[in-house]
Amino acid sequence: MIYKLVNQNVERDLSQSIIEIKDVTFSRGDRTIYKNMSFSVPKGKITAIMGPSGIGKTTMLRLIGGQLKPDSGDITFEGQSVPGMTRAELYEARTKMSMLFQSGALFTDMSVFDNIAFPLREHTQLSEELIRLVVLMKLQAVGLRGARDLMPSELSGGMARRAALARSIALDPELIMYDEPFAGQDPISMGVLVRLIKSLNQVLGLSSLIVTHDVTEVLSIADHVVIIAEQGVIGTGTPEQMLQHSSPLVQQFLKGLSDGPVPFHFKAAPYEDELLLGAQQ
Amino acid sequence: MDFLQALGHKTLSRFASLGRATRMLLGALLSMPNFKKGTPLLIKQLYMVGHQSLLIIMVSGLFIGMVLALQGYTVLVGYGAEDSLGPLVALSLLRELGPVVTALLFAGRAGSALTAEIGLMKATEQLSSLEMMAIDPLKRVVAPRFWAGFISMPLLALIFSAVAIIGAHLVGVDWLGVDSGSFWSIMQSQVSFQQDILNGMIKSFVFALIVTWIALYKGYDCVPTSEGISKATTETVVHSSLAVLGFDFLLTAVMFSS
Asked: Which residues from B are below 8 Å from A99, CB to CB?
């Protein structure tokens, strides 16, 4: 039965979208982050948003979560416009989406158990006994059942990320957004997180949106890739299509080349001129 | 021209800041209270903000009362009016020193802690995380801390005044030899509940509102970096202290000028 469900999920058509970004323009002060950007996030799949540092990948997650509003354009979650939602509608939508923050964002004054029980206590009427069972199941899924009584300060970086992952699946969301889930992780923790993201996506039948620049890890599990640079989408498709992409910028990013369309040197006067000028002076 | 532009920019940004602070406070106070979930949060904050400030308030109160008695006695004894030490100390404390010094100590002890805590919650994305969990941080984080500050500061001011009067008694009566009966009976006859104690309490509630509001806003609005939190914490203490002293003058002028 579970096998059938998983297969159905994997074979679901990519055209069915959970999120649509339509002609979004967003600026911070005088700086334009996105200009008329459009792409979609297919339902039931793992979508990776990639791009160089500082191009606003995390900002995109905040726009989808309704924490920021675009200057123009629209963002829809399950067909409903996120910027157009009232506060109550937005909070209702947020119970169906979840976000794993880069820092984990565990509440430092609560134990691991209480952190995971927190959304359940806030949003459900479950008894403490049932909450205990749900929390233990979520902790078992991320391998931290034995760490339930520890405080966040007692966890390693990888464990904190996994505990935060357990909290983000506590309410069985339809969408999980991961903000740089592999940043600063050792190879073992990274492997564990990659496997967890893949298995949770399949078993729970949810949609995953991963913002990262860890190319190798994310390409191994992503069904769909969106590469952002220069205020817009420069490439989108399956990992295989991306690896064959004709854009030099996409190739530079995926292969990690130090020089290319994104230059190695910061803009400066010609090297020879500066050296000769120094000698003359 | 540049000066005028800078002045205009600064004025506008001050108004914008005041607007954000008012929105934050109203957002926290006007949201529908949930007594079942809110009461444990409030009790925890009363402990953190109020109970944890008790020691500094009591020790400061004791010493201020002792110093007040010592200074008052040396002046009064010159006129043979040392029996008036009781009302002198009580009126100074209940009308001015109790509410003002408590507010200044509260800003330094609890206000800075509130700013740093909320600033760190912002820097470590805990506030964003609450929002993404469909939980209003104003209701969950700001409101219980505000009410805890608002409730505990007037109580702390009363405790401060009481301990200070005991300190004054220790120095004035037990050490310097002022008559104990005169100390208490003249104090009782000179201190009016409405004019002195109630007005002092009103001052305390106003200071509690100001200090807690500034502390919470500075944390909530800070730049989420270590430098930003450090700046916000300093601003909490400086702005709260200046606001308390300024409002103290205004309130005193309204309450006692006639």
From this structure: 129, 132
Query: Is the separation of the CB atoms in B241 and B214 below 8 Å?
Result: no
Letter string b/e over residues A78-99, b meaning 16 or more CB atoms within 10 A of that residue's CB: eeeebbebeeeebbebbbbbbb
CA dihedral A223, A226, A227, A233 (to 10 degrees): 160
Per-residue pLDDT at A281: 64
Among A56, A65, A3, A48, smallest CA distance to A25 is for A56
Compute the mean pLDDT over every residue in chain A, rounded to the nearest whole number. Answer: 84
Six token digits for residue B60: 């400061």
Contact A25, A73 (CB under 8 A): yes
Q: Which of A10-14, B78-82, B95-99, B254-258 has the lowest mean pLDDT?
A: A10-14
How far, in Å, CA of B150 to CA of A60, rounded?
A: 39
Residue in A with minimal Cα distance to B34: A122
Per-residue pLDDT, averaged over B152-159, amounts to 96
Q: Report CB contact under 8 Å: B133, A94.
A: yes
Average pLDDT over residues B195-208: 94
CB contact under 8 A, B129 and A65: no
Whether B131 and B63 have beta carbons less than 8 Å apart is answered as: no
* A256 Rama class: left (phi>0) / alpha (psi -120 to 50) / beta: left
Beta bridge partners of B257: none
Nearest by CB to A105, from B126, B135, B136: name it. B126
Give ipTM to 2 decimals: 0.79
Distances (CA, A) of A36 to A18, A81, A157: 20, 16, 37
Nearest CA to A165 out of A246, A257, A119, A100 is that of A100
B135/A122 Cβ within 8 A: yes
Q: Do B124 and A105 touch (CB under 8 A)?
A: yes
Total-model pTM = 0.83
